[in-house]
Predict the structure.
Amino acid sequence: MNRTEYPNRRKQIREKEEPEIWEKFWKWLDTIHASGGSRLGKAVNYAQNQKPYLMNYLQDERIPISNNFAENSARPYAVGRKNFLFHNSTDGAETSAIKYSLVESAKRNRLNVMKYLETVLIEMMGYNDESEYIDELMPWTDKIKRTCSTD
């Protein structure tokens, strides 16, 4: 199955199998009568309050059911925060954030990170603050995928 077929397949599976599972889950949740201040009561209340947001993933096959990917992408930045104590300026902190963003975006788009960073740095030298060309360096562009892909 190629990348373009995967979202359609995911949608088919979701439409066929998941609504029934969710219906059973919400009915089961309604049967739980925990006291409001207990941990279980808070968990049940939280789940019920989040139902409309959670169910959005059934509407769009591109939306994953969990945010694990987003959290895993942010983890290297969180792990590095002790190092950020050594940033001497706002510019240093901003530069670090940009670097992390570039690296994680490259990983997400299955690029060779070092090749991507090298390509971006070399290409940007000729841009002279002409921001309209920056879109060409985004990790999802055909040019960058041809140059830096790990596939």
Observations:
- The mean pLDDT is 84.
